[in-house]
Amino acid sequence: MSLTLDAILSSQSSLLQEAAEALPHQFTQCTYAKGHIRQSVYLCLTCAVPRGICSACSIACHTDHEQLELFPKRNFRCDCPTDALAHPCALHKTHEAANDANAYGQNFRGVFCRCAREYDPRKERETMIQCLACEDWFHESCLNLRERPPSRGPTPEPAQEAAEADADDTTSDVSDNLPPPLLRASDYDSFVCGACVRSIDVVKRYAGTPGALMVIQDSPGDNWKIIGTDEPESMALGFEAKQEPNSDSAEVGAKRARSASPSSADLSQAKKPRLSSAPSICLAPPPSLVAQSILSNYKPSETAPGLEGTREEKQILGFGDVFLTEGFRGRWCLCEPCTSQLKKYRYLLDEEETYEPPQDPDSGLSLEELGLRALQRLPRDRAIDGIRAFNEMRDDLMHHLRPFAQEGKEVTEADIRAFFDARMQAAKSGQS
Ligand SMILES: [Zn+2]
Ligand SMILES: [Zn+2]
Ligand SMILES: [Zn+2]
Ligand SMILES: [Zn+2]
Ligand SMILES: [Zn+2]
Ligand SMILES: [Zn+2]
Questions:
Q1: Engineered SS bond to 333: which of 206, 243, 284, 301, CB 3.0-4.6 Å?
Q2: Ligand nearest to the CA of 61
Q3: How far is CA 288 from CA 207, 213, 233, 292, 328, in A?
Q4: What SS3 string covers 382-399?
Q5: Residues 157-167: pLDDT tens digits?
Q6: Residue 201 Cα to ligand 6 middle (Å)
Q7: Ligand 5 is a single-atom ion; what residues have CB below 5 A from it?
């Protein structure tokens, strides 16, 4: 498919709206009408109100605004077409009242982690990890997984090595040129921050037991170490696991656990509960005393840095963060008290779906698709700054395409591909 770009190029800044109109169904629909869903949310720094907009609105409505991607937030409805934002929505034309059911944590003030730092993509070197429960983002160093590295100076963005960066959407990629953290992304499946662990009894109960890793320090000045690394038993199959205590590899355990994991619907109406899915006695592992002492005695303030003062009184130290290993959703005890807890936090039982804008079915690669693909090839810690990168790339692309427009030539997909290939090539050679 080729595009005649004369018209589009008449206004550079409106390229994306125009392209979106020419190529329907791709970032042309605000998600407002879908209600409260889990979706990627963007904070518009230019509009400067603590509200969030959907990915389509981030491109179509706030095109020239500076934005920060907050990544998926559950139960979130787009604020773009509402009273809360003065900037008009270009996609959802009906004027809507301000959303009252969205939760606006500190991320909506551009602030992240228990250290409450602002995110600066040009300086940040650390991987950030998203809490499964509150969906805030945490620095590895703030989880005691590494020393806080000095911030980096502004460097050109390398665009390679990104193909492998999309595997895990709850970490923002490998920290650049830093020694490995105490726990790598491959060592666990999900992370729950200490504040959330304290508020969710069932997670608190499991903290520090096999498969619910914690980072602790025996006394001030000691090295941080991991507890809970013993091979997790499948708790859903607790009786069986006890009969054959050493039979399961982690992989087998995870698979079994998965098949034994009921959906929430099953749980809510367990008519004839099987012994293994609704035991009358609690099959949660014996609590980890170390973990429980950290969780009950030591309550770090959420935002205060410099916690050294309070640390010293405690023998065993840690924030109470929990890293749940592969297959954790199938390992919870399903006795009645545990189940009623778990049902309140469905993401502990079932992996959530995150809305993605629909693919454009009848075009070739649209400009936006090409742009977003290029974006996806950027490492995660750079992709968090994706909008800015995307805007820069769009400007370069316009520059590349302007001669076609001036000569009235059609632009083909190959021309656009050539642009991206050249760009990737430049990025690679620039890096070596
Ligand atoms: Zn929207
Ligand atoms: Zn804006
Ligand atoms: Zn909008
Ligand atoms: Zn932090
Ligand atoms: Zn949390
Ligand atoms: Zn139980």
A1: 284
A2: 3
A3: 7, 11, 15, 6, 17
A4: HHCCHHHHHHHHHHHHHH
A5: 444 444 344 44
A6: 11
A7: 131, 133-134, 193, 196
CA distance 110 to 169: 20
Looking at residues 32-52, what average pLDDT do you find?
96
77, 191, 185: which is closest to 137 by C-alpha? 191
Give residue 116 CA to ligand 4 midpoint distance, Å: 6
Rg for the chain, CA atoms, rounded: 24
Residue 31 has pLDDT above 70, yes or no: yes
Torsion, CA 350, CA 355, CA 356, CA 362, rounded to 10 = 110
* CA 59 – ligand 1 centroid, Å: 10
Residue 166: its pLDDT value, please?
42
What's the gap in Å between 351 CA and the centre of ligand 6?
Answer: 21
d(CA 297, CA 198): 11
- Of all ligands present, the nearest one to the C-alpha of 92 is 3
Mean pLDDT across 233-255: 38
Please report the pLDDT score of residue 382 as a whole number. Answer: 47
- Alpha-carbon distance of 428 to 413, in angstroms, equals 23
Q: Please give the distance, rounded to the nearest whole angstrom, from the Cα atom of residue 195 to the centre of ligand 5.
A: 6
Distance 200 CA to ligand 4 centre (A): 22
| 191 touches 324 (CB < 8 A) | yes
